[in-house]
Structure prediction request, 620 residues.
Amino acid sequence: MCGIVGIYLFNASKKDSLPLIEVATKTLNKRGPNHQNTFSDNQKIAFGHARLSIIDTSVNAHQPFISDDGNYILSFNGEIYNYKELKEKYLQHISFKSNSDTEALLYLLIEKGISILNELNGFFAFSFYDKKNERLLLARDRYGIKPLIYYKDENQFVFGSELKSILKFGVKKEINQSALFYYFQFNFIPEPQSILKGFHKLPAGNYLEIQHDKMSTKKWYSFKLPEKYEHIDYEKSKKSLISKIEKSVERRMISDVPLGTFLSGGTDSSVISYTAKKFNPNLQTFSIGFKDNEYIDETYYSDLVAKHLKTNHHHFNLSEEDLLHDIPLILDYIDEPFADSSAIAMNLLCKESSKHIKVALSGDGADELFSGYKRHSAEYFARNNKAKSATINLFEPLWENLPKSRSSKSSDLFRKLNRFTKGYSKNLTKRYINWSSVLSKEEVQKLIGINQISSLELNTQLSEDFNSVLYNDSQFLLQGDMLRKVDLMSMKNSLEVRVPFLDYEIYEFAFSIPASFKIDSKGTKKILKDAYQNYLPKELYNRPKKGFEVPLQKWLRNELSSTLVNEYLNEDFIIHQKIFNLNYINYLLKKLHSKNPEDSAATIWAIIVFNHWWKKYFLD
Prediction:
């Protein structure tokens, strides 16, 4: 895994921009601490690459990778797990100088062209240049595991793994108001939008071609939900799921550097760790605990699973001080506003794990594919318990006035009941957006004083098929939030994280089985839990689900109040900035310190993240 950056000129008179590739590449040093290098033809194109060495760590595998005849150049971020099979299938006539998947991908693209994308099993974002035809190709993996951002104007096309690398080419900086609206609605910016005008994220499963001054973007991978689920046997499906997970994990165990698994003690990470242990008897597993806060601590379960599996377990028992210490570093690393506060805990897990391993397998993706979120339980309840749902809805005034926050079980329950009533009476699409949002559209409008500029487009129409909810989660929340968080925090700590549940064979299998195999009145992730019930501790199956939550409300009231809150939400800053409604900021601060804070802490955190970013990129 690495970082890439590059530039393609439309205007030959602007070739003085090409040497900027050197400084742009240096911005990616955390993504690629082992080696940085650049390529330029001094006329039209320049590539930069920062390498985190995983497969073939020798100098022979350094990038940008140039073909023997000098006509083709590849800069590649990711891993192709089936590269050896593809070499055997298509490239037996090639004399390779490395054992890397990079060199294999270069020649696969030369020999097979774009069609080879459909045969790649892995995660990737890459740039490939054909010097003879002055043709640039960018491509991104099926589910958007690895990022790829681009900018285009009349003189140049610039791309990179991170926005900060593109900015080194002196491009214009102007805030995209539509992206800003979505950021405060969801606490992340949905793809393909970016915070700056003219910047776009290449959509997952897409490729982009440029030749001379013509650019086109096309989808190379797509998947449609079945219209019917007929004659699908549950027992056979369980066996098939186990088989596919084993194959996926085995593929992702390939590495020339130390590898382990994240183990939170939840079903997903436990399944991955159980499977990985089959292929590595000395498997290392990693978890973090919070010794200051029992409500968010999960170490009992992670230790239980590690003991059951007999792994070489690393349990990092951290304090709130440990979490707080790294917040300024996290804010500095983020180059596009991203306000999922669980990134703070993810950062520490990656930071501590990277002291022992360079590759980690995680359980990300299972919640979206197999229905693991509390929102899914709420949606199922709303669809299947209309009388009880209506009764809960009648008590909306009560839930509205009871104290709501994430800081205790009772206040969190009232918060959830209040959110349920806010979305229950809406149609399927509006309810989905409501329950995925941190702020309503009306609240965002009050905060930043602008209406929603463009409507959010879901990837598939929500229907009575519950799989349509999960599919949209996999295309929207998973890509924009969960995978973004893991990529940011793992790369900040120079750690590669692989996601076995997002092997395309598992993904397509998950959406070929009915949602009734995943969620029912008894709970979520039914088929995944049933498939592994004889292999994991029974205590896992009745435990409450917890995310990577941090005590954000407490911090903003206390530890962060005199620093970040006062710095970024003070009256002088807000007035000078001319982005926010000062009255609404004061309302949020008052709510934060009230007996009914609701989710005000999440929005205040989003403002802090944005304002730190804005100050860094627009004032400094």
Q: What stands out?
A: Residues 95 and 171 are 41 Å apart (CA to CA). The chain has four domains: 2-219, 234-368+467-542, 372-465, 551-620.
